[in-house]
Write a structure and sequence with these properties.
8 strands, 7 helices, 216 residues, alpha/beta, three-stranded mixed beta sheet, single chain
Length: 216
């Protein structure tokens, strides 16, 4: 993170660790604020519920706070407006309304769709790899994941892709999470990250998405 910030022309004024289970963050906040930062990245989990009030008490604006997937949440019980302007990131392509509706058909109580597209596509791409291999062993699926994810005929649904596989066609599955292109090591080479912003109700909504590729 430091390298990325500095490469973009920024300056890291401080970095402070905490111990899991800590409930008082006054010393850490004081140390961070001593550097007079314009922005503070809060890489934490449930401790965020104590860190944010400490920052607010010391006059640091929410618009300068940046969360990550571990603490991007709509369940904080802060006074209205506490988080207004704060931003956070969540890896992956957001679940669009159509996909959310499909998920709610299975579980109407769903309210959090984080990683839903990735989880769905993981199952689909594994099934397609097994179908191509005509073998559902772990080794067979592993050996066919790259093939069904890149370098063939584009398809975007399991039914369409399976029909092509059964015809012996090499496929390139692109799913609800976006392009799925594994390299020879089985690592993804393309991905989206969502950027979200909190409103006065302390709830976050999608601001925009950024796409990145290791091939660029």
């Amino acid at each position: 993170a430091r390298m990325a910030i500095e490469a973009a022309g920024g300056t890291v004024t401080g970095s402070v660790l905490y111990n899991p289970g800590d409930t008082n963050f006054s010393s850490q906040v004081a140390e961070i604020l001593a550097g007079e930062p314009d922005a503070i990245g809060i890489l934490a989990f449930e401790e965020t519920a104590q860190i944010v009030p400490e920052l607010v008490t010391n006059g640091f604006p929410a618009s300068g706070m940046y969360f990550v997937d571990g603490n991007l949440s709509n369940s904080y019980e802060f006074p209205a407006g506490t988080l207004q302007g704060a931003k956070g990131t969540l890896p992956g392509n957001p679940a669009d309304t159509t996909f959310q509706s499909r998920l709610k058909e299975i579980d109407p109580a769903l309210t959090d769709f984080s990683y839903a597209p990735e989880s769905y596509d993981a199952v689909i791409v594994a099934a397609l790899a097994a179908a191509q291999a005509k073998d559902d062993s772990g080794t067979a699926i592993r050996d066919n994941l790259q093939s069904v994810s890149e370098g063939g005929e584009k398809c975007t649904t399991f039914a369409d892709c399976l029909a092509l596989v059964n015809e012996g066609t090499d496929i390139d599955y692109d799913g609800v999470s976006g392009p799925i292109t594994f390299d020879e090591n089985g690592d993804p080479t393309e991905a989206y990250i969502g950027i979200y912003q909190y409103g006065a109700d302390n709830k976050y909504t999608l601001l925009n998405t950024e796409f990145g590729s290791l091939n660029e």
